[in-house]
Amino acid sequence: MAPGFLQVAVFVLIYFFCQKEAQGLDEVLRLRSDLLDKYKRSVRPVRDYKDGITVYLNVALRQITDLDEKNQVLKTFCWLRVYWKDEYLAWNKTEYGEISSIMFPSRDIWIPDIYLYNNVDEQSDGGLQPGTNVKVTSEGEVSWLTPSSFTSSCKIDIGPFPYDDQHCILHFGSWTHTGVQVDLQNASDAADLSDFADNGEWWLMGMPVRREEKFYSCCPEPYPNLKFSINLRRRPMFYFFNLVLPCLILLLINPLVFYLPPDSGERMGFCMTILLALVVFLQLVSESLPKTSDNIPLIGKFFAGTIFLLGLTAMANIIILHLYYQRPGSKAVHPVIRKIFLVYLAKIFCVTNSSEQDDDEKDGNDSPDTLKISNPFVDLTQTFPFGGSAPNSPDPGSRDYGTWDCSGRVRRREPPRVTFNLEAMQTNSLIYLKEILRAVNVIVKDIKEQRADEHVELEWRDVAMIMDRVALFFVIVATVALSMAILLFSGL
């Protein structure tokens, strides 16, 4: 008996619930039919046409899909929450089985024509497209929760890039209804960010909303609108490691060019390599930023300052190399330049002048012990012990000191007596000495000119090396200043 009784009880309960559900379904269908019987979705749902409808709008930001700085376009995905009261969708719960709320497709009832004013999507007009269901209570309160993707314009301020904050606006308002007909109000002071998905490039600092009333030249009535401000702060780590840090490294390497010897021939190649690398980095930055002349980004200023500094470094190296490789016969160093560089700056930068050492060496060589020709016209008569006229000199090639006799023996005879003509010999000696003196004077003159040219070249080299140290000092100071400026501004 017990199992049969349980089966009957279960059957009765199932029948009761099914009957109840069927009865409730009939009530919903009847309510739906009664509400939509004479409903006109194209007419504002007010009994008196002069009355207005207050529409409350709130936005729940879900994700920032993309912020295209170059085209100044923001793509977002949002949940929109729209609330208003429909006087034609109210009913008495007691007449319809205590049904307190019902769902309608958004295409079946009137919905406010809210549009995104700053829409730039070519595939959409920026309006809220009917798609999801609408919840309606017995008092006529309508709640419409719909997801939407928006593509809006956003004015990008590239001044502090890559340490910038951006403020993008979602500008909503009714397209055809004035503020008297549809009064658009914000449901809260800020958007809902509880379900926001973090973005790898931006920090979301907040999304406040403000209401404004706009008057247009076409119509005297106000048009209320809501502006949701998406406050973003860029995450700079990507740009720091990929753009700023390589530039800093190149900037710190730049002063080392002055440690390369001028004779190495690698100075200008080193400068040009760094300069071209920075130009490439600057091109990469400019390709990702909008083409605007309103402002120059911080990183652009940094690159421009670095390139300018490298240009000055290259120019200084050109001048230094030009002074270092002075040709023989160049003009001597001007006294003012000699005093400034070889006296004052040489002491400040502790540079030893090789030209002064050369002067010391020359002073040491010009000692009193050095042989000097004071009177080349020597009285040759003092070198001979003979008086009067000297015997004539025999022919050095002659060997006729004897004759042969018939027996084959040589008959010896006394060699001829040699006589010297001192006057002729003295005249010839003077001629030879004049030629020798002339040749020696030419050689001495050439040596003096060569030493003078070497001295001038050494002085110019000293000027070049001192200028090298001065340029190194100023480049280091400018490098530290630029590096500290970018690092302090970045907050690192």
Task: Give a structural overview.
- The chain has 492 residues and is an alpha+beta fold.
- It has 7 helices and 13 strands.
- The strands form 3 sheets. Strands 3-5-6-2-1-8 form a 6-stranded mixed beta sheet, with no helix packed on it.
- Strand 12 and strand 13 form a beta hairpin.
- The longest helix has 69 residues.
- The relative contact order is 0.09.
- About 9% of the residues have low confidence.
Secondary-structure-based class equals: alpha+beta
Helical amount among residues, as a percent range? 25-40%
Tally of contiguous helical segments: 7
Q: Into which percentage range does the β-strand content fall?
A: 15-25%
So what's the overall shape? rod-shaped
- The number of strands is 13
Mean pLDDT: 80
Major sheet strand order: 3-5-6-2-1-8
- Assembly of the depicted chains: single chain
Question: Which regions have little confidence, pLDDT < 50, spanning 5+ residues?
Answer: 15-24, 367-401
- SSE succession: HEEEEEEEEEEEHHHHHEEH
Main sheet makeup: 6 strands, mixed
| First and last CA, distance | 85 Å
Radius of gyration equals 53 Å
Q: Which descriptors apply to this entry?
A:
5-stranded antiparallel β-sheet, 40% helix, 492 residues, 6-stranded mixed β-sheet
